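Teaching assistant here, posting this on the class forum so everyone can see the example we discussed in section. The complex has two components, and the goal was to see what a joint structure prediction looks like when all of them are supplied at once.
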Amino acid sequence: MSNTLSRRDFLKLSGLGAAVSAVLTGCGPMARYIVRKPYTSMPEYNQTGLSTYYASTCRECPAGCGIIVRTKEGRAITIEGNPQHPVNRGRLCSRGVTAQQGLYNPDRIRGPVFQARGDAGRAKAITWDEALNVVQQALASSPDQIAFLLGAAPDHLFDLVSEMTATLGAPAPVRYNALTTFEGRTTLLEAARLTFGEETLPYFDLANADVTFAFGANFLENWLSPVAYTRAYGEFRQGRPTRRGYLVVFEARQSLTAGNADEWIPIRPGSEAILAAVFNRLVAEARGKPVSPAFSTVTVSAAAAASGVSEEKIRQLAQLFAAASHPLAIPGGSALAQADGLMTARSLLYLNAVVENLGQPGGVFLTPAQVAATDFAAVKELVRRMTDSKVKVLFIHGVNPLFELPGALGFGEALAKVPLVISFASFPDETALASDYILPDHTPLESFGYQRVLAGSDRPAYSSFQPVVVPLYDTRATADVLLAAVKQLGMAAAQAFPYKDEVEYIQQKLLPLIEAGGFYTAPEIFTFWSRWLQYGGWWKPQAELSAPRQAVPPEEAFPFTPPVELEEGKQFYLITFPNHFGDGSGANRPWLQELPDWMTTVTWNSWVEIHPKTAEELGLHDDDVVRISTPFGFVEASVYRYPAIRPDTIAIPFGQGHTALGRWAEGRGCNPAQVLPTTTNAAGDLTFGSVVATILPTGKRRPLARVESKEGIYGEH
Amino acid sequence: MAEQKAPQKWGLVVDLDRCTGCNACIAACSMENNIPFVGEDEVAYGRGLYWLYNKREWRGEYPEIKPAFEPVMCQQCGNAPCEPVCPVFASVHSEEEQINLAVYNRCVGTRYCANNCPYHARQFNYFDYELPEPMNSYLNPDVTVRRRGVMEKCTFCVQRIVRGRQKAAAEGREVEDGEIQPACVQACPAGALVFGDVSNPESKASQMARNQRRYQLLEELGTLPRVTYLKGGGRYGG
């Protein structure tokens, strides 16, 4: 932090006083410049014995929930939901409330280091001036050889880097986050573009629906905006005096969402598309609508044969859906991670049009936010460029590709071919340790920024970040580092980015919002800025979602890919699913490790879910360590006999198996990314949904710390 | 402090039809109440310190199987089995909040109370669990940090009740319904947990508790729990 205080800043700071409310403050502990005051007038963030609350945004996943952080004597104490925020309305998930364990994590990187790719002998701490020179020289290299790999959050950094690469003539930044792959986000976007004519994420009004079909969309756990959807789920169940929503979930392994459903239909992985198509046909027939040609040739018997669901059941469910007054079909997750995933998504989106719920309560709307897509295909292309030695400088921020990407993609080998890798990681994750330099960014609770709310809000919304504590260590905002480096590059580049620092850049990006009709406005940016921080963002005062203007079904008959045939008893479908560790970055939060898994109650480890009948046939018991092999690699994990999974399917949770990331994450469990394929569906999303695996007992045993045994405290243990 | 008319009877209602089993309540509770994490081995020994645990029970047979979730915290019994067995009055009933409190600095660790609690709601600190620097920075100064040999449990976030009551008193008004929320209630994304004054028939918690879906855990023991559950899986009138 600089200790200069210009006249303009002084006026700005003193002007803020008027706008500051009693509870939420717009002026933070890092109001950019130090203000010295006598003890009798303590800074508001340090009033002994009194709490100060700051509104900010949770960055544990990209959904953008509003948080209010209670601080005391300059320490972040508890994280609570922001009651006014349109995404979460004061609610939070387990990841959000434990975010302090990231901020105060003892394994954080405390200053810029020359890492020398993990070569401990050459590693040394450097100063920020040296770091800036490194970045400046890196940016001065031939533009087509520069690459940026960014995470799904924060958006302001993505915007800044996008503008920078455009100015420098470098390729646009690539964004990736494992959660977006598990969500099937790219497939959903592409399906929305083809069906509704607009490339934007649909908003599914679960709260007002009565019969809901969900294909693989695990919206109670991780999908798009889990807190917003869980909130809607509560209303779906008990929010209306006379109606209780009825949820049917189709997936091979019972997720938490399916566990809460009224009916869980364990279909065979890979049969989602034909099942979605046959529902289209049956529902259209039941409602007396013309059946579009793509679905008219699909027979119930073919769908039943592919999915393993009886014809009678399929007809009964179609009848239920067709007869409902507010039916809703939600495609997502593992259902889209199949060869025919795009067809599944299109069929299900169109199914909503067949029952005429577009733009209706309990139906499908389009969200207004622009999507800066995160795309697996783009990552694949980047890896190809790296392997071909076409990338000389790689900047990585907010993503841990060595952990999150399928091992078979060969990111590690590709990384070795990049002469200069600069990581902005706050934690010593796998990728940071394999970089040349780590120039640590502030952690989210120490940062400024914004995130565009994509999917969880019923209105246009920007969510704001502000520091709730003074940065603990010698870290620096990545946007500041890049801006300073660009400034050093010389006239042309510097002119394109005249901003003094990150905050000025964000303020400039907020200018259009002043006149955009939000629930507050201000005559100029500085007052607007203080309200922006005070409220935790900007959004419209009323719900504002558009209905899709059109709905186009898939045109011609579709050659459905049949589900992969298995050698019975030898081969199994392998499902990888994210749990409360999200993209794996949650594994260094000890309370998330200690938190029991929803379904299995296992803590601190990985497991493989096997149906008890299958386990018996294979002679496996709980806690037996088995080796799961696919054509792409193998992992080892303890068996958990899981009664709610197809007997021909096994499942491993994602998020554990770190080889780095600090004391609580390291050396725990296995990383199923090592057994994932690299194939993509028609929309470019990873097809992780029907990997075929084999199980090999290792003869070892490793007991899992399950909380469910507490129930049997006088029996089992 | 302004005179209270009658002590509020704080109660919690858990709507199991809304509850998804997401465990946000456990995480929020742990961060608010300075609950230490104990690590894999200790959890495996059944020594995890969950003031609130989610009882997950498999119901049915494949394929018609699903988990039933039931978050269980201290039931704040009106007739609490843990109280009469404590030799040092560490487990006492508070006049003011009408809840069952744990007085940590009285506790000598006999564990009689845990043995007598039918709900497994009491947790024992078998060891000291140090938070490495600087992780101790997030410790909530309103809640005592317990040490080895001390029994602990859910207090309905009594520090939040006191704070809310003092705030209302300072502003010269009554505590409003919904103003005071324990950490679990505040976090619950599905709105399954509702907290309030159950002596006031108009409070949201009282209204919800008058439901045909209502039941209490081990009602037949006569412990008079202050936590009411609403059965999930459908409507039963009310």
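For the discussion questions: Chain A has a mean pLDDT of 89. The first strand of chain A starts at residue 51 and ends at 57. Think about how each of these relates to the inputs above.
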